[in-house]
Known about the structure:
The chain is mostly helical. The protein is built from 21 helices and six strands.
Amino acid sequence: MALFHWKEQSSAVLQQGGLIGPDERLPWPQTTLMGVQHVIAMFGATVLAPILMGFDPNLAIFMSGIGTLIFFVLTGGKVPSYLGSSFAFIGVVIAATGYGGSGPNGNLAVALGGIVACGLAYTLIGGLVQLMGTRWIEALMPPVVTGAVVAVIGLNLAGVPIKNMASSNFDSWMQAVTFVSVALVAVMTRGMLQRLLILLGLLVATVIYVLLTNGLGMGKPMDFSGIIAAPWFGLPQFTAPVFESSAMLLIVPVVFILVAENLGHIKAVTAMTGRDLDRYMGRAFIGDGIATMVSGSAGGTGVTTYAENIGVMAATRIYSTAVFVAAAVIALLLGFSPKFGAVIQAIPLPVMGGVSIVVFGLIAVSGANIWVRSKVDFSDTGNLMVAAITLVLGTGDFTVAFGDFKLGGIGTATFGAILLHQLLRLRPR
């Protein structure tokens, strides 16, 4: 089958300064190892996002594998990408469900309905891009808008770990230990270890937590009983969505963030490979949209392309889509292990809070990085107004009501940035 056909290349290509393109691959043993590397790279964020929303992280990993395979098929195997849990959904899901910050989300089904609706909107936008091209998307969401919206995701979520994930002074100190651990891994290591800063920092902080609590009696001890009791193999626990208009209207605006993320991903990979991937953008949006609908229909999170995996590709110069097929299969296998899920669930809440502080901060900074890379001109008063107002709307959780429906935080900031930019473009030149 042509879809699963790649031209085999030797690693000598890399040693000579070349790269492995999307339609090429290394021998299967090396390709599989690269797949493992990509799973590890996306692991921390893909697991963290569902935990912060009260979703099953084990199922999220499983659905990320399903979503990646869907994306691969719908893009004809031409676009290298891993689809993991999207952080863009966290704020709106918490708002829609009233989630308290720990344990399973009691209103999970309502959130799933909104995620499915968002995936449908994403798929329809992909269809329009397929028919009309990408210029209208780029005009609607230029870098000044996308940068502001991405930054707002991190800033809007800043209060979650600080207010909801530290119930005592000891917990607050453990959060500090965690984000310092992550920062030290980021600065003191190189290569793949540096790419795994979230995972390694989390492991170091968890070990310290166990020594202080289980060992020295400080704080709440880590409970290992769930890990011991969980079987090695079992079916994931699926949940059906419930469609409520208020939740759907709150969550659907996230589609603009997903579009911005996917657009940026394709532009980045195009620049790194020298291959024109813009022609696959419509299919990429459709693939991501359908993957999000399938994930939400089963109880998983909305999915998106991952910057972590772009980083791995940039570091290795291996852009083979075969690697992502291997990574997807590995994620599926992990999803069939309740033991693996129990390990994730056992991670102490303060440690997750410390990791969250880092991740949300990185999201905010990545928005600013879009401005820098795109050379957004803030001497232009219009750009300055769009960025300034959007940041405060999102950070301050500005809310507007339309009857019984309320739009706040990320949703208000997203629509506000798009509409304000279009309005200010009307000014005389």
